[in-house]
Specification:
Elements (H helix, E strand, L loop, with lengths): L1 E6 L3 H15 L3 E7 L3 H11 L2 E3 L2 H5 L6 E4 L6 H10 L3 E4 L7 H14 L3 E3 L7 H11 L6 E9 L4 H6 L12 H4 L2 H11 L2 E9 L10 E8 L4 E7 L8 E8 L2 E6 L5 E7 L19 H15 L7 H20 L3 E2 L5
């Protein structure tokens, strides 16, 4: 089994630890040790999941049994950890977003490339069965000429969510709604529709007492000429309403929805059975979300291939987010370098 270390033992780290417990039972990967500047948190997590804990990151990185370091710290604190782990010869799995600027993302990518280690980034939505079916229909040309797509994120994050962890909602550590929550559906827009040529957005802070936006609306033009729409907010009352992705073309319509894009709401294509809804999706209770991301990274190490979402792939959605933020500041559309 491939051994993992955890750096940062907050909310995201628990998802990694729970996934690694599933994968350990399957003989794929296991949690070796955990580190957090708050030693109490690393001790508690390690005790719960049957792992060791280290008082210092250097101690964790000296463990031969640790082959991959999963970084689950606040977004603004990841670069020094990546540099230390890469220098120690450890592969990396970094929570989304991997960075809050393109320059920092490029540094992460170059650091890992120079050290000869793999840099994986956590984008679990790509492993949803519904998303995989949509991607397959697009690759098969079932939609024909694409016309437009939309991504909706209608979630609820109360003020108490931000007050509980002061780094949340800050520009330097969190990055805002687009970086921290809407990044999932924006990544899927790019993965299904291709590169964005230009983007325009409005960002506003309507209800939450935070530095960053709590509501966003955007419009995109993809390289092939299709259009895209984004609506995102964490102010929806009183709880998460939906996260959905819709793709439209001359021969097909598909809408994915539910709380986290797990459901096929509409699935209609020209030809035999045009009015039929999609077949039932497979039930994958033990290989979903973070477990699927980690399993893919482990397979990439064994097969000597790139993981599904490596640093270069994860950079694409960061470029789009930066462009949307720049458009909101300037009040005009922004052209993306990678969209042509």
């Amino acid at each position: 089994m491939i051994g993992f270390g955890l750096a940062g033992c907050g909310h995201a780290a628990r998802k990694h630890a729970e996934a690694l417990r599933v994968l350990q039972a399957a003989g794929v990967a296991r949690l070796v040790s955990a580190y957090d500047p708050d030693q109490r948190r690393s001790e508690e997590l390690a005790r719960e999941f049957g792992a060791e804990h280290d008082p210092n990151l250097s101690d964790l990185l000296e463990r031969d049994a640790v082959q991959v370091l999963a970084i689950c710290t606040p977004s603004g604190l990841r670069l020094p950890l990546v540099e230390a782990a890469a220098q120690a010869g450890k592969h990396l799995l970094v929570e989304k977003p991997m960075a809050l600027s393109l320059s920092e993302a490029d540094t992460l990518i170059d650091t890992c490339r120079s050290a000869g280690v793999i840099l994986g980034v956590v984008h679990p939505h790509r492993f949803q069965p519904a998303v995989g079916r949509l991607r397959g229909a697009l690759e098969a040309g079932a939609f024909g000429k694409l016309t437009h797509a939309s991504a909706l994120l209608r979630w609820h994050r109360p003020q108490s969510y931000y007050d509980a962890s002061p780094w949340r909602g800050t520009t330097s550590m969190d990055g805002g709604l687009l970086f921290n929550q809407a990044i999932h559906c924006l990544d899927l827009l790019l993965w299904t529709m291709g590169p964005v040529e230009s983007a325009s957005a409005y960002l506003t802070t309507r209800l939450r007492r935070i530095e960053t936006e709590d509501t966003a609306a955007g419009i995109m033009r993809f390289g092939g000429g299709a259009l895209g729409v984004l609506e995102a907010s964490i102010t929806v009352y009183p709880e998460n309403l939906e996260e959905s992705l819709a793709v439209f073309g001359e021969n097909g319509t598909a809408v994915l929805g539910g709380a986290s894009l797990k459901e096929i709401v509409t699935w209609r294509f020209a030809g035999p059975g045009e009015g039929r809804v999609a077949d039932a999706l497979p039930d994958l209770p033990t290989w979903r979300g973070h477990a699927a991301v980690i399993a893919d990274l482990c397979a990439s190490l064994l097969d000597r291939r790139r993981p599904l979402v490596d640093g270069e792939e994860a950079r694409k959605v960061l470029e789009l987010i930066v462009a949307l933020q720049e458009s909101a500041r300037k009040g005009s559309p922004v052209t993306l370098a990678g969209g042509g």
